[in-house]
Each structure stands twice: as structure tokens, then as C-alpha cells.
Amino acid sequence: MPLINNVDPVELAKFSDVAHRWWDPESEFRPLHQINPLRLQWIDEQVALCGRRVLDVGCGGGILADSMARKGADVLGIDLGAKALKVAQLHAIEANTAGVQYREISAEALALEQMASFDVVTCMEMLEHVPDPVLIVKACAALVKPGGHVFFSTLNRNAKSFLFAIVGAEYLLGILPRGTHEYARLIKPSELASYCRMSNLGLQATKGLEHNPLTRRYWLSSDTSVNYMFATKKT
Ligand code: SAH
User: Which residues contact 200 (CB under 8 A, 6 or more apart)?
Assistant: First the structure.
């Protein structure tokens, strides 16, 4: 049964073990804090978040969910990591963020409960941690309203992404803990595009996220060879 099986306990544990540090901008979550303003702006430019009903799938400690709520969206963040969700909830209370809620439920289960309910669905840096990303894409497509938008981000699979995202980030520079990403689970843009097509999600825009490890700067570009994002629309 895909509903209960499309989760890897080892992957969940990686995030759970360090969940208390989600909001520490100098922790292993530093890259997510750094890319957040970039991805938030890109999403906002395309869907004008204010007033939208938004679902953030695999929200973790709520870095993106919280920031989308601060743009005026009505956000539900879901994850299967109970500790991360607690941290996200606490952060919302401490930071006084209105319009964000969190729930421990899979995208597949929520799709049975709230089909075609969201204007926007985001699923960032999560597909590469699940056994069957096709089922997550399918669930996101079921959750968004017809004509609504679904955003994905993940890591490309090629020699350069292996060198930069795994060898460089995890082993040479220690930006991420070792074992954060498993090469075989990375997803090529062509593969993600085909998963989207299978779910009636039309690809509208693609963006690359580049990083200079020396200056520790991130920026958006057309280079999707390592980290990249997709903007899609449900037909
Ligand atoms: N999307 C967030 C966090 C990315 S980290 C951001 O970009 O800021 C990856 C997250 O995916 C973790 O919080 C982990 O608990 C979650 N995750 C992994 N497998 C999952 C699954 N099958 N269902 C829901 N969440 C999952």
C-alpha cells in the first residue's frame, strides 16, 4: 500500500535527530535559510501568495511555510517528522506568525481527505528523500485546485551534482551532514518533468539554484545542473 509505505524511516531520522536546530541559521539547516528568500520571491512572483491557500509538503521546521504565511498566505505545512513539526509550531508561536498551521500527515493521505483544495502546493527539497517520488508528485497534483500551481525543488543527478552536492557539501566543506543525500535518489529534471506530465502538471518555468562555496552565496540562474526548481500548473 503506497499510503503507508512511501516513507523511509532512515531519511526521517536524519532530520529528526537534528530537529531542534531547524531555526538556527548557522546549523546544518543554514543552506535552507540561505535559499529561502530566493525561492520565496520566485514563488511569490508567479502566484502572488497573499490570500492564497497554500500547502507545503515536507515542510520540516517550517522555514518556507512560515515565510509564505508572512506574505499573507493561509498555509498548511505537513511532514511525517513529529519533532520538526513541534519545532515549526513553537516557532510560529514565538515569532507570532499568523496564518500557518502544521499537521503530521502524508501528502497521499491528505489527498484522500482534501482533494483539489489548495491554490498553491510547494514541495521543496523533499522528493529526493522518499522511496517513490512519483506518488508524491501525484498526491501534490491531486491536492491542488484545477488551474492551481505546484512547485518542486530537488537535486539533479549527474557527475557535477555528485561532486558539488555530495562530495563537496558533505565531505569536503561540511555544509551538510554526511549521508544527507543519497546519489541514487537524486532526480534529473527530465525525470521530474515526466512525473509531472503523468500527473497533468504542465511545466511553466524552471530555475537553477547556484552556490559559490567560497563566498557562501546562493543565487537563482538558468543552470539546473545541481539544485533546481520547477513551477507547474494543474491542467
Ligand atoms: N521543505 C523544507 C524541508 C526540506 S528537508 C524546506 O525546503 O525548507 C526534507 C523534509 O522532508 C524533512 O522535514 C523530512 O522529515 C521530510 N520528509 C521526508 N520523507 C517524507 C515523507 N515521506 N512524507 C513527508 N515528509 C517527508
Answer: 141, 234, 235
